C-alpha cells in the first residue's frame, strides 16, 4: 500500500511538473529553432547534461543569424542581447529586478537624449475632422474619434512643459529611496492604435497618459492602489494594480507579430 501511494505521488508530481513546464523537450537535441532551444535553456534544470550541447549550438546559430540578417531586421537586436546574456550566464533568464533595472536604464537614456535635444523626438498631426479616426498620419495610427481630441490635447505639450515633465521623470528614475511617495509607471503600447491610459485611485487622484501606437510613455504617480483602464483599438482594458515601485505595463499586440 505504501509503495502504491509512493508511486501515485511520484506520478502526480511528474504530471504537475510537466504542466508547470508547459513544453515537451524530449526531442530538443534535434531542434534547429533558436527560440525553442533558448526556452529550453531557461526552463531546464541547471545540471541537465543537454545544456552542454545546446548552449554552444544556439550561440552559434544566433551568431550566424546576425551575420546573415538584413540590416533592417528588427530581430537582430534581440539576438545580440540574448547572445550577450548567454556569454555571461547559463541562459537568457533574468530576474524581475534585473528586468526592471534594464527598463530603467533604457528610460534614463531616452529622457536624457530628449533633454539634450531640448524637444520631443515625435511630431504629431492632430485631427479635427468629425468622421475620421486617424490622428497620427505619419504612423497611420487610429483611435476612436471620441478620444481623438483628448489624445491630441495630452500630446500637445509646449517645450517648457515637456522639459519639466522629462526632468521629473529622470529624477524619479534616479531616486532609489524606498520611502519615496511617488513611483514610475511605463506604459508600452504594442497595438496599432494610439491610446489613453487612465489611472484612478481613491478620492480625486487621477492620471491620464497618452501613448502613441508602437511606442511607450512614462508617468510619475503617487504610490497606492489604482484601477488602470484604456480603450485599445476598440477593446476595453481594465486592471487593478498596486503601485509600490516602478512597473511596466504592456498593452495590445502588434498586427505584424
Stretches where pLDDT is under 50 for at least 5 consecutive residues are: 1-21, 120-125, 127-140
**Strand content range:** 15-25%
C-alpha-based Rg, rounded: 23 Å
Overall 3D form:
elongated
Classification by helices and strands: alpha+beta
Helical percentage: 40-55%
**The CATH H-level homologous superfamily of the largest domain:** Immunoglobulins
Count up the helices. 7
**Biggest beta-sheet profile:** 4 strands, antiparallel
- Alpha carbon gap, first and last residue: 53 Å
Taken in chain order, the helices and strands follow as: HHHHHEEHHEEEEEEE
Assign the CATH architecture of the largest domain.
Answer: Sandwich
CATH fold type of the largest domain:
Immunoglobulin-like
Detailed description of the structure:
This protein is of the alpha+beta class. It has two domains: 2-93, no CATH class; 97-251, Immunoglobulin-like, CATH 2.60.40. The protein contains seven helices and nine strands. The protein has helices at residues 2-21, 34-43, 51-68, 75-88, 96-117, 145-155, 159-174, and strands at 134-136, 141-142, 182-189, 195-200, 206-211, 215-222, 224-232, 235-243, 247-251. The strands form three sheets. The protein has a four-stranded antiparallel β-sheet, with helices on one face. The chain has a three-stranded mixed β-sheet with strand order 6-3-9, covered by helices on one side. Helix 2 (34-43) runs antiparallel to helix 3 (51-68). The longest helix is centred in the middle third of the chain and has 22 residues, at 96-117. The protein starts with a helix and ends in a 6-residue tail after the last strand.
Amino acid at each position: 500500500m505504501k509503495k502504491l501511494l509512493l508511486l501515485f505521488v511520484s506520478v502526480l508530481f511528474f504530471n504537475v511538473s510537466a504542466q508547470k513546464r508547459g513544453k515537451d523537450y524530449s526531442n530538443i537535441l534535434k531542434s534547429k529553432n533558436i527560440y525553442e532551444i533558448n526556452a529550453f535553456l531557461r526552463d531546464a534544470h541547471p545540471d541537465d547534461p543537454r545544456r552542454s550541447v545546446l548552449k554552444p549550438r544556439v550561440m552559434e546559430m544566433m551568431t550566424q543569424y546576425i551575420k546573415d540578417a538584413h540590416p533592417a531586421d528588427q530581430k537582430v537586436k534581440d539576438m545580440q542581447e540574448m547572445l550577450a546574456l548567454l556569454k555571461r550566464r547559463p541562459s537568457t533568464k533574468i530576474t524581475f529586478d534585473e528586468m526592471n533595472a534594464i527598463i530603467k536604464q533604457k528610460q534614463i537614456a531616452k529622457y536624457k537624449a530628449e533633454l539634450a535635444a531640448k524637444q520631443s523626438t515625435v511630431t504629431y498631426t492632430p485631427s479635427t475632422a468629425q468622421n475620421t479616426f486617424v490622428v497620427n498620419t505619419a504612423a497611420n495610427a487610429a483611435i476612436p474619434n471620441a478620444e481623438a481630441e483628448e489624445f491630441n490635447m495630452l500630446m500637445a505639450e509646449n517645450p517648457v512643459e515637456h522639459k519639466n515633465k522629462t526632468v521629473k521623470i529622470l529624477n524619479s528614475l534616479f531616486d532609489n529611496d524606498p520611502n519615496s511617495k511617488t513611483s514610475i509607471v511605463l506604459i508600452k503600447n504594442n497595438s496599432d492604435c494610439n491610446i489613453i491610459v487612465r489611472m484612478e485611485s481613491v478620492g480625486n487622484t487621477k492620471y491620464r497618459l497618452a501613448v502613441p501606437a508602437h511606442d511607450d510613455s512614462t508617468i510619475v504617480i503617487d504610490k497606492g492602489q489604482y484601477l488602470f483602464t484604456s480603450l485599445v483599438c476598440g477593446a476595453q482594458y481594465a486592471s487593478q494594480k498596486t503601485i509600490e515601485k516602478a512597473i511596466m505595463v504592456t498593452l495590445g499586440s502588434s498586427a505584424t507579430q
